[in-house]
What we know:
Chain A has 169 residues and is of the alpha/beta class. Chain A is 36% helix and 15% strand.
Amino acid sequence: MEQKKLAIIATKGTLDWAYPPFILASTAAALDYAVEIFFTFYGLQLVRKDLSVLKVSPLGNPGMPMKMPFGPKWFRGINWNVPNAIQALVPGYESLATVLMKKTIANNGVATVADLRMMCQEADVKFLACQMTVELFGFEHSDFIDGIDYVGAASFFAFAGDSDICLYL
Amino acid sequence: MNFDKELDAKGLNCPLPILRCKKSLAELTTGQILKIVATDPGAIKDFEAFAKQTGNELLSSAQNGSEFTFFMKKK
């Protein structure tokens, strides 16, 4: 049987949206797929050497539950419905939300983004970065981890064109 | 059941049990058996799907309280 192929375009650069591309890519690799991820626009943040740039913002995100990852069960169950106007005004609100989300991730036995990314690389998931957006955002290649090919859209299609699954995330 | 290697995936969440399983299988030879213990409630369906797609044989899966035990034979 010919090896299946998964092509992913990763466009988002926040802590929450770092998960789908790396989870799907590492799992597909474990299922013997050949996998390529094309990181473009804000998705470039996912291949930075320094992943502490990844944050999560509950601002303007009504789908995100705001629950505390500590304390007694009744306390953890509360959804802190803070109005957008207040979220926007409180300094450090985003950093606080990021700290809480990282704690929740650890509590639930969910891998860190760095671990999942490393597992992708160990499983030979190929990382492509969009050279145009690297320049657009003023990044240097030295801002990114090793093992990345800097290419344009045409190179992505060389693989994605005959992939079995192609996802835009 | 006899087994050649044991993987403790307790407390790990999706997709870690599958990724660790893949890694552990790589250290075995064809026909050898891997025992996996997991607590992820999605593990039963996921290990079935993993076996189906990779050709490794899921010999058994059992639930004991919140723990799941699998025996997988390497392709």
